[in-house]
Structure formats: C-alpha cells, structure tokens
C-alpha cells in the first residue's frame, strides 16, 4: 500500500532533491506540498514548489503557500547564502504554469489530515511554523495524523545554524517546541544522521550526467550549493544529505537506528533552537520522540540513486 504524504518545504536545493526523490518513489503518494520561508522568502519557495511538481508532470498535486515569518521572533536568517537568491542555486526559473491554492498552508494541512484520518504522514523539511499553526488551528490533527517525520534538529553533532542548533529548528524554535510537545508520533531525522550520508563529487557528477528531467534539474541547482559547502566545510564538491534522508526514512525506516527518547526544544538564550534529549525527564515531563542516531549511509545513497535514475 502506498504511503500518503504531505511535504512542508522551503525549496531549496536539498528540498528539490527530496521532493524529486519522493515524486519518483511509487511507495509514496504525494498528496500536496506546503511552502514555508527558510532557504528563501516564502513567495519564492512556493513558486519553486509549484515548479517541481510540474517538472515531474504532477500538475494535479496542490501547493499551498504558508508562513512568511516565525511564530514569535523576527526571522533570524534566510538561507540565500546557501541556496542562492532564488533558492534554486541562482538559475532563475521561469514562472510555473499553475496557481497556488487559495488557502494558507496551515489550513491546507488541517483539511488534508481531516480528509485522510489515520493515513497521512506529514514530512516537514523546513522550519516548523506551518505545522505549529496547523496544530493551533485544529488540535485534533495530533490524533488524526499517521506520523510526522521531520528533517531537523541535532543531538550529538554540532549545529549548522549555531553551535548547538540545526537550521530548521533554529529558524523557528517556538514552532518547533509546539511540534515536539504535541504528543503525536514524531521522528527526527537530524544532523546526527544527515551529516553521515555524504554524496561525493563523483556520485553527483555521475547522477548529473544521467540526463532525465529530475537529474537535469539537480545538475542546474547544485553548483551554488556545492560552492557553499566548499567554503563552509572544506568539502570538495561533496554534499551532506539533509532533506533526502527524511524521504529515505519514509521509504525504509530499517536503514536508520532510532531510539524513543523524551525531548524538548530550547526557545531562549544562546542555546535557542537546541533539540535536547532528557532521558530521565529531569527538566520536565516531555513527550517521547523517535530520534535517528545511526544510518546505513550506503543504502540511503543507493536508494536515492535508484529512484532518481530509474
Ligand atoms: O539543516 C538542513 C536544513 O536546513 C535543510 O532542510 C535545508 O534545506 C535547510 O532548510
Ligand atoms: Ca529544507
């Protein structure tokens, strides 16, 4: 049976790779995309999301535009220095053919869960603002969603937005705190695993030479992102695999080693955006989440390769 998913996303170079990975996986039925600020402004990420469903001839998949700013604090940063001004490595795509939905992403998320009780998996791969707004709008979605699988957070790995915080959590810690404490089945695919899945320059060069519409899009958006990884991490054309790892988890959770652990998100001070495990519940009565701590990196890369080139 296919898994129905709704991806909440800020495309974004690695979001692009993740969305194409999902759209090309027959086990997954992408019911919709919701756009969020993050790697670029939300007007831009929404347009990019629309463009990606059209690229794979999925014009029927609805795309809703979501929040432009975090719940409480002003935006901390947008990721244009990582993903380019257009979020797509500066390739300046033409306008998509289709239109965005006429309702905000939070409402779209609520309506989609209510229409698919117990069947829909939410896959947020950007800041969690839309998801928190949806919980506020209709708290019943917590019991009606099948599961929530996020790309975000870090426990043992260094942060990538602050010494302790991963970017998606850092960019709206208050929203993340709501999502972590909602009490729904939540899996965190964070930097502890995504940094271990490395697409080498050789792997990417071969992928980009395949020449189908998906790999052609990846070929175009990659150079800006690779340049950032070179300057920031000293990687010579290699990339960490963030958002596509969440899709790999949906396809085969057995590729990941995960533990159920009580966790919370820090929202104040210099550690704001940190995802903290509190095994003994010393700091509060936190909800258990499923935290990915290990990964079969080779198999994730093989799966991505198979779907993108097949
Ligand atoms: O930390 C990695 C995450 O931040 C990814 O989702 C990437 O797209 C950026 O949003
Ligand atoms: Ca993202």
Characterization of the model:
With 310 residues, the protein is α/β, with parallel strands linked by helices. It has a single domain (3-309), classed as Inosine-uridine Nucleoside N-ribohydrolase, Chain A (Alpha-Beta Complex), CATH 3.90.245.10. 39% of the residues lie in helices and 18% in strands. The chain is built from 13 helices and 11 strands. The strands form 2 sheets. It has a 9-stranded mixed sheet with strand order 3-2-1-4-5-6-11-9-10, with helices on both faces. A two-stranded antiparallel sheet has the order 7-8. The longest helix is centred in the last third of the chain and has 21 residues, at 213-233. Calcium ion (CA) binds at residues 9-10, 12, 14-15, 38-39, 125-126, 243.
Question: Which helices and strands appear, and what pairs or packs with what?
Answer:
Elements: E1 3-9, H1 13-23, E2 28-35, H2 42-55, E3 63-65, H3 80-83, H4 105-115, E4 120-124, H5 129-137, H6 141-144, E5 147-151, H7 167-170, H8 173-180, E6 186-189, H9 191-194, E7 198-199, H10 201-208, H11 213-233, E8 239-240, H12 243-251, E9 256-265, E10 275-277, E11 288-295, H13 297-309
Parallel strand pairs: 1-2, 1-4, 2-3, 4-5, 5-6, 6-11
Antiparallel strand pairs: 7-8, 9-10, 9-11
The protein binds alpha-D-ribofuranose (RIB) and calcium ion.
